[in-house]
Structures are given as C-alpha cells and as structure tokens.
C-alpha cells in the first residue's frame, strides 16, 4: 500500500525476504544499510546489528536521515531523498572499479555518468575487503519513487561484493503475502494502479487509506467517487463511513487462526486466543461467504486447515521455494539527484497499523508524539 514505484511488478524472482537467517546477521563482516531508520523500523534486528558491530562488523549506511543508530558506523553517505539512487550507483561504480568487473547493461548505462564520491569509495572498499557481506534495503528504499532502480543497483553491489541482498519486511506478514501470490498478475492492477485509474467499486481489507497508503489524498478521492465500496475493518472508522456503502467487522489476529511468515521465511501458525467479539468474523470466513454468494469456485473451505491445504500441502516448503530477491531486466532510472520534490513520510513506530494507532499507552510515548512527516534539511531550507 505504501509502494510508489511499481515498475518491477511481474519482473521479481519471487517473494522479497531478508536474504538470510536472522541469526546470521551477527556473523557478517561488512554490511550496507540502504534507506532504513533501523532502530525505529526494525528494533529487534537492530540488536543483531549492534552485536555484529561489537564483533567487528563494518556497518555502512546510505540514507536520507542522519539518525543515531546507537552503534558504531564505519562509513555513511547522508543525501537528499532524490539523490538516494545516485549515491547507491556511485558505490556500485566504485566497487566495479575495485573488482575490475563490469556491470550489466541497464545498470552500467545508469552509473556511467555518476561521480564516485569519497564516501562511496570508502563504502566500496569496506564491502570489497570482507568475506561475509550483505546489502539490506529498508522501508524508505522500498517506498522510494525510484525503488526499482535502487533494487537493481543494490543487487549488483551484493553480487560484486560476493554477498547477499536482503529486504526488511514492511509489515508482519509481507513475505507470506508475496509467497502465496497476493500480488498483481498479468493484466492485473497494483494498489497505485487502482487509484491512478479510478474504478467503479472497491473492497478494502483492513486498510485505512489516510494512514496506510503512499498517496492518501488520491486514494480517498477515488473511494469517494466510487459507486460501491465495501470496507472490512477491525474498528469503526469515521472516514470510512463517508465513502463505504457497506462496513463489515473482521477479527484482529488475536481472534482468528492464521499463519505469519517472518522476514527469514519462517512459517509460524497460530490459533485465536479469544472468541470474536459480537458480530465480528475472521476475515477469511467473510471472504468465503461473499465468494459463495457470488458463485466463485474454490471457496468452499470450512476450516483454517482446509485453507492452508489449498495453499500448499506443505506451506513451509512452498514459502521456501518462493523466496527470491532477484529482479529481472528493468529500466534503471536514477532520476534527478538535485530534485527538491522527493520527500518521505516516515511511518511512526506506533503508527504502522490500525491496532497500534489505537493503543492509548503507545500513543502517549515520545515516539508517537514525534512528527510523522520529515523533509531533507537542505530541501526545507
């Protein structure tokens, strides 16, 4: 929902994941962290990175914000949001020169005119001098308007360094959703496409556009103009009441059974711990009933076990077979590094979903009170 660049749709090797086991982070010798406010974005992984730096890992950072990671950073390149792809391209170019290697077509063309900065060369030397390396793309890299270019260039940096490429999951079950194919297929539309070309009807599943979408204004405008909108949510939402024709209450994860797949591809199934409240029903049951009423085949399951069986006989094996961070031949457009109209809207640590946004205790914290909008200092000036 927060993805802006969808040009890689249909060209991904599979579900994007961490690229390694979580425990293996502490064994890395050099790492490149791209577009990630690590401590607020992935606080549990942050402890792994901190342990690794204490053991000598060289942590290199490319980001639009110079936040304190509370660990030793060997090299960093803090640039404007618009310059993030170019800064990464400079590292790829420097690393190729150090290795005496060539970059593939589109990436080679994109980096040809890029100037290698001192920071880029230092980061390239750090990666080139280590045996166990990894490149990780954080939330801001994945939500960048040039996310596909960042992905393609990062992929080449990881290849030249002899390391792995990893992605930080943007939600609790991002890997699981991708692994079972909850993505646009041939002829389908991504979330942004459904808004760019407004549709007659929409079904929202646990989505609050004003907080969950990359372009909330355009999304809300499309919903307001639609002929029919069904909103399936956990809570009463005053804004949804303005555009929804039907609001269906669905259960939070605590009141239903399901499966989460974490960033390393580990499958973790669970059951509801309490009964659904009132007329609330698990979302999969609501969808099944709607499908039955519309005579849609393949929706006859009457238990969560049947749902899992229809996904795959062995869900864990299926997920493992789908983990793949490679992106195929894509157009690598670094954009204008001097543009001033590229800004990020950071997602607060306690603003990630409908539940955290409504937790009184979390909303009283300093992190919740912090501004949810940030711009690069030079652009603001």
Q: What is the structure about, briefly put?
A:
With 381 residues, this protein is an alpha/beta fold. The chain has 19 helices and 10 strands.
Would you give an account of this structure?
Helix content is 37%, strand content 12%. Helix 12 links the parallel strand 7 and strand 8 (246-249). The protein is an alpha/beta fold. The strands form three sheets. It has a five-stranded parallel beta sheet with strand order 3-2-1-4-5. The chain folds into two domains: 22-169 and 329-341, Dimethylsulfoxide Reductase, domain 2, CATH 3.40.228.10; 188-262 and 266-319, Rossmann fold. It contains 19 helices and ten strands.
Which terms would index this structure?
381 residues; disordered C terminus; single chain; globular; five-stranded parallel sheet; Rossmann fold; alpha/beta; Dimethylsulfoxide Reductase, domain 2
